[in-house]
Every structure is written in C-alpha cells, then in structure tokens.
C-alpha cells in the first residue's frame, strides 16, 4: 500500500510524514509537494504536485493507493484546487481519499466553511471512497499572540467569552495517520476538536500563571480589532478575515465537546498549558 500526502512540506504535512514513518515503511510513503527540493529532509519519495496543474497531479498520483488531501492554504481558490486533486486521484486509480475539512463545516459560520463544504460535495460526487476529517482550530493559531500579549500586558480579540476547543497540529496529524493506516474509516466524517475548551480570558490567565506577568484580556469590536491587526502589520484584507473568525468563535463556531479526536488517536489531546509553555520557551 502506498500512501501519498499533499502539502507534505507544510506544518501539518511534515508532522503527518514523520508519524507515518513510525507506522509504515518509508518506501510506502510519497510526499506530494510543489518544490521537491524542499522535501529533502522528509526521508521519503517526493513528487512534484501542484494543486493548479491537473496533468502533473495525475502523474504524481500514479501507483498511490491512499491519499491524504490536506486542504490548500489559498483561501478563495480551494474548491478549484481540491477538485483538480480529486479528479486526478480518480483518473490515477487512487482507492481512497482522506480530506482535512473544517469542524462542523456544514453548519459553521466561519467564512472558511463554504469551500470545505464544496470540497466534501466534490468528493461525494467523485464516487471515490473517502473519509472526512473535520479539523477544529489549531492551538498554534493562538500561540502566535503570546508574545504580543506579554509586550502589551493584554490579550486582545473579538472572541468575547466564546469557548474554543482547539488541539495541536500534532494531535490532528495523529488523527490523519490513524485513519490512513487503520481500518473501518471509509465513508465516515469525524468532527475533531480538543478535549477541553477554553476562553481567551482563560488563555490570558494561563499566560499570566506561567510567565509571572499579569496579562489581562479584552474583547473589542470586530472593526477595532481588524484595525489593530492592520496597524500591527497584518494586510488589511486578512486582518478583517481574522477579526471575523474571532466573532464566529464568540458565537460557538470553534466549540465541540464530543472528544472524537482523543478517541480516534488513543490519547488525550495536548493541554493548553503545554502549548503555552512551548510558546513561552520560544
């Protein structure tokens, strides 16, 4: 059995490759990447595969049995790119596709959701055997704010008291590997999130506890938060998107208490305290 992973030089992709090598022989793993020169440290075969080049994708998928389709990072172009991969997989004779979608994609108010829903529909229409991993938020998405919170003495957002059931990238990588190498996952959709949800006020309290510095939390209006992000150097359009995601979080878009993720990977998800400790160390 040959397992291929798209986006294999990305942060999630690298973790998946590392964990796959602990479960299956390296010669049964294929890293699909835009630039094969960046894949030298992965320790597996690398093939050039660009989401925008259908013919090259079909060639790269030759001989692949199972494909992990890690969602593209290019928001707004994902549906076309993912459809290219799905069509190429079908033509190449791939037996099964595992796709990284979004938590509660079909009901989510996050602006990211429609592209994931359309990709799920494309997979269904393809007739390919598939599994949907609806990944929740990465805890790392918030760890980038630790430094600024320490500098300002306050953690700012527009998430109010919304509860966030995030998990680490490593947790989601473990889930992908469990499905790629396990049995009985065909046709299933998994809602994946961290075991213990937290508010950003609780995140601020954890940063305070571990750093020894008093860090407050302030939820501000969406437009004000977007403006603050822009002032900090975030491109204006993306700043607006980030602020809108916080508002969605305040409405429960990042919450889930099913603990499907920890059941799937066979261990508890990474505690928030552990992630904060790692962030402070860097």
Automatic annotation (TrEMBL):
One of its GO terms (molecular function) is NAD(P)H dehydrogenase (quinone) activity. It comes from the Bacteria. InterPro entries: NAD(P)-bd_dom_sf (IPR036291), NmrA-like (IPR008030), NmrA-type_oxidoreductase (IPR052718). The keyword Protease does not apply. Pfam families: NmrA. Residues 2-245 form the NmrA-like domain. Keywords: Oxidoreductase. Its EC number is 1.6.5.2. PANTHER family: NMRA-LIKE DOMAIN-CONTAINING PROTEIN, QUINONE OXIDOREDUCTASE 2. This is NAD(P)H dehydrogenase (Quinone). It comes from Pigmentiphaga litoralis.
């Amino acid at each position: 059995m040959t397992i291929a992973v798209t986006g294999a030089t990305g942060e999630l992709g690298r973790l998946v490759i590392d964990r796959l090598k602990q479960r299956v022989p390296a010669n049964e793993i294929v890293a699909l990447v835009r630039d094969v020169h960046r894949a030298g440290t992965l320790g597996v075969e690398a093939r050039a595969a660009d989401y925008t080049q259908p013919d090259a994708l079909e060639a790269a998928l030759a001989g692949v049995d199972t494909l992990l389709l890690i969602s593209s990072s290019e928001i707004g172009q994902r549906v076309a790119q993912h459809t290219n991969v799905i069509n190429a997989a079908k033509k190449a004779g791939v037996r099964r596709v595992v796709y990284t979608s979004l938590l509660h994609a079909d009901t989510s108010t996050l602006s990211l959701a429609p592209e994931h829903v359309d990709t799920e529909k494309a997979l269904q229409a393809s007739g390919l055997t598939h599994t949907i991993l609806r990944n929740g938020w990465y805890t790392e998405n918030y760890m980038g704010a630790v430094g600024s919170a320490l500098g300002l003495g306050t953690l700012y957002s527009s998430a109010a008291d919304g509860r966030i059931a995030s998990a680490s990238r490593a947790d989601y990588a473990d889930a992908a590997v469990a499905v790629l190498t396990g049995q009985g996952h065909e046709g299933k959709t998994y809602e994946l999130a961290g075991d213990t949800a937290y508010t950003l006020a609780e995140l601020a309290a954890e940063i305070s506890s571990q750093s020894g510095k008093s860090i407050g939390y302030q939820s501000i209006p969406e437009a004000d938060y977007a403006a603050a992000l822009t002032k900090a150097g975030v491109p204006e359009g993306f700043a607006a998107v980030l602020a809108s995601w916080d508002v969605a979080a305040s409405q429960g878009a990042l919450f889930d208490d099913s603990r499907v993720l920890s059941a799937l990977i066979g261990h508890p998800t990474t505690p928030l305290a552990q992630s904060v400790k790692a962030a402070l160390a860097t």
